[in-house]
């Protein structure tokens, strides 16, 4: 990851960003239930930074709104969030780390009533099944968060983008 010699995808294709979501008529109305939708989930994860490039997962087309699914039953019920992400190359060694970053962001942000499932888009990675199994294993995710080096890298991915000094 230091210098371009260690990059797997030295020149990734960069995509345009989605427009900012306009406010709805009930966004500030406390009398209307505020359920999560796919766009809201996408907005939570779109700015996560790639571990190898100074670009967001949205800019690399790793995450898309259309790959976010939500079943939100509201305050009284359980729900589910499923996010499929697409690594930039089929042998991306950072896929587990990217998935972990997405999962951690959602677990830190969403209410506990929503179950989080993060998966690789089917057919887009050579180790898809193994990585999906890792990301679904709560004990492995908890162990990863306790690893200081891994936590440092995921925190960098989740940190807000800092503009370069002029």
Automatic annotation (TrEMBL):
The keyword Nucleotide-binding does not apply. GO terms for cellular component: cytosolic [4Fe-4S] assembly targeting complex. The keyword Transmembrane does not apply. Gene3D superfamilies: 6.10.250.1280, Fe-S cluster assembly (FSCA). Keywords: Chromosome partition. It holds the Pfam family FeS_assembly_P. Residues 40-117 form the MIP18 family-like domain. Belongs to the MIP18 family. This is MIP18 family-like domain-containing protein. It comes from Petrolisthes manimaculis.
């Amino acid at each position: 990851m230091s210098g371009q010699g260690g990059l797997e995808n030295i020149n990734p294709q960069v995509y345009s960003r989605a427009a900012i979501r306009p406010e709805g008529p009930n966004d500030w109305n406390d009398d209307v239930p505020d359920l999560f939708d796919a766009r809201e989930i996408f907005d939570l994860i779109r700015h996560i930074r790639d571990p190898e490039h100074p670009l967001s997962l949205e800019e690399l087309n790793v995450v898309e709104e259309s790959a976010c699914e939500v079943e939100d039953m509201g305050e009284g019920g359980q729900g589910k969030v499923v996010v499929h992400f697409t690594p930039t190359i089929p042998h991306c060694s950072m896929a587990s780390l990217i998935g972990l970053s997405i999962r951690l962001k959602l677990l830190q942000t969403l209410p506990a009533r929503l179950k989080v499932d993060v998966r690789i888009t089917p057919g887009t990675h050579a180790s898809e099944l193994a990585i999906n199994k890792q990301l679904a294993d709560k004990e492995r995710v908890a162990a990863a968060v306790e690893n200081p080096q891994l936590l440092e890298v995921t925190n960098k991915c989740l940190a807000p983008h800092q503009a370069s000094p002029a």
